[in-house]
TrEMBL record:
One CC-aspect GO term: endomembrane system
InterPro entries, A to Z: ODR-4-like
Protein function: May play a role in the trafficking of a subset of G-protein coupled receptors.
Name the record gives this protein: Protein odr-4 homolog
Source species of the chain: Chloropsis hardwickii
Membrane-crossing segments per the record: 424-444
UniProt entry keywords in alphabetical sequence: Membrane, Transmembrane, Transmembrane helix
Protein localization: Membrane
Family: Belongs to the ODR-4 family.
GO biological process: intracellular protein localization
Length: 446
């Protein structure tokens, strides 16, 4: 028995419209949510066309001309715009009958390429019990025949399995939303031994350590700590027969553990640093969950991943912007302040789910609208954009090329003095102990 995909009804119309424009094929992404019982597809988004494709279309039709890098880049950009709980569930292809024979082979290759690209950016690891099947949807532009198969992306030798593709109206009308605000104050040292003072690599390493703190945090849902195996909506009223978007919102507080457990040993490390990066601000996070008896564990996991993703993604966006505007060879000579892009949310028509994006302060609204059309094939009205948070900053303290001989000598001398002081402390303590024992012996002898 294969997996079942419940698909938003409007996607059928979207794919039908795309099939009338096929020359000779079109590819795209399927966006939705996995669950143990079934998967939910809430959006289908075509791959943005490239200018070169117009010239390539003059030749004979062939799937060998698929631009794999372009499609995986699109998937990476789209994944940044998805709140917690949503992910790229698979890929689709609408092709002419003469290309149908090679369609599944091309889709299989794309599925594994997209998953590999997305997994490189993640600072979290999938759970062992997590669904790893991804959908490959193929539609014939002439006959409109739909073939849906799945591949296990955790198994490179995975073969195709049949899957059911079922349309459903108002699929996400009553999904559950969870939201929280997380205060961020992360100090990341830049080691003097770090080659070329790679700010991006150091930042990712620092965020990786921070992400483990988020994973270990306690989540209060509407002021309560709930057992992870209980139903999220337990005790809440359910709205039956309601086809209008009706969000059931849960407010979440994130309690980060300040110290390790009593059994864990803590050690101090002295490192020579040439600078530091400080991330400060408050980030708005959001996650969405299907309304079919969702578990607390699913909700907390979705929100954790959104917290980690949103900070990691906007740091990536900032460094991409710096490289674009300043060049990769720029050396940091003095203290720098940068503003992280702010998160904004945009509603999906006919759904309680909202998608997100990131906006720099000097970025025009028109640029955001263009990005939604290009990345998600969705027009957005300016009044529908909701900037969710205040400004967050990145403070990069001065970074020197390398410690000078004098500095290195001073550091070495300081380290030796520190060790000498520690050793002297031990010597004095030992001498006191010896004198105390002698005094005690003489006292009792007398």
């Amino acid at each position: 028995m294969g997996r079942t995909y419940l698909v938003e009804e409007g996607i059928g119309q979207y794919l039908a419209e795309l099939s009338t424009k096929v020359k000779p094929y079109v590819t795209g992404l399927l966006i939705g949510q996995c669950s143990p019982q079934r998967d939910y597809v809430i959006r289908a988004v075509r791959t943005p066309p490239k200018e070169q494709q117009q010239e390539e279309s003059l030749g004979p039709p062939k799937l060998a001309s698929l631009d794999e890098e372009w499609i995986t880049t699109h998937a990476s950009q789209v994944s940044r715009m998805l709140p917690g709980g949503l992910l790229v569930l698979g890929v689709f292809m609408i092709a002419t009958p003469e290309l149908a024979k090679d369609g599944q082979t091309a889709l299989r290759k794309l599925i594994f390429s997209v998953e590999k690209s997305l997994s490189k950016r993640r600072l979290w690891k999938p759970a062992e019990e997590e669904v790893s099947d991804r959908a490959a949807l193929q539609i014939c532009s002439a006959t409109k025949k739909v073939v849906c198969r799945t591949y296990d992306v955790q198994d490179p030798k995975s073969s195709a399995k049949p899957a059911d593709w079922k349309y459903q109206s108002a699929l996400t009308a009553s999904w559950v939303a969870l939201g929280c605000t997380v205060n961020v104050n992360i100090h990341i040292p830049l080691l003097a031994t770090s080659p070329n003072h790679d700010l991006e690599k150091n930042t990712k390493n620092g965020l990786n350590r921070w992400s483990k703190q988020i994973e270990d945090s306690v989540f209060l849902i509407n002021g309560q700590v709930k057992d992870e195996d209980t139903e999220l909506l337990e005790g809440q009223k359910k709205f039956r027969g309601n086809t209008q978007p009706s969000t059931q919102f849960s407010d979440v507080k994130v309690l980060t553990q300040l110290c390790q457990g009593a059994s864990a040993r803590s050690t101090a490390t002295v490192q020579v640093c040439s600078g530091s990066i400080n991330l400060r601000g408050a980030v708005k996070c959001r996650a969405y969950l299907h309304s079919n008896k969702p578990k607390v564990k699913e909700a907390v996991q979705a929100l954790k991943r959104d917290i980690i993703n949103t900070l990691s993604d906007r740091c990536e966006i900032l460094f991409e912007d710096l490289i674009l505007n300043e060049g990769p060879q720029k050396k940091n000579s003095g203290r720098e302040y940068h503003v992280l892009p702010q998160r904004l949310f945009v509603p999906v028509a006919g759904s309680s789910v909202m998608l997100s994006d990131y906006k720099f302060g000097d970025e025009a609204v028109g640029e955001i609208q263009e990005r939604f059309v290009e990345m998600l094939d969705q027009p957005v009205q300016a009044e529908d954009m909701h900037i969710a948070e205040d400004i967050s900053t990145v403070d990069i303290c001065p970074v020197t090329d390398s410690p000078s001989d004098t500095q290195q000598a001073q550091l070495t001398k300081a380290t030796l003095l520190l060790k000498l002081q520690q050793n002297m402390g031990l010597v004095v303590a030992a001498a006191v102990a010896v004198l105390a024992s002698i005094f005690s012996f003489n006292y009792f002898s007398d």
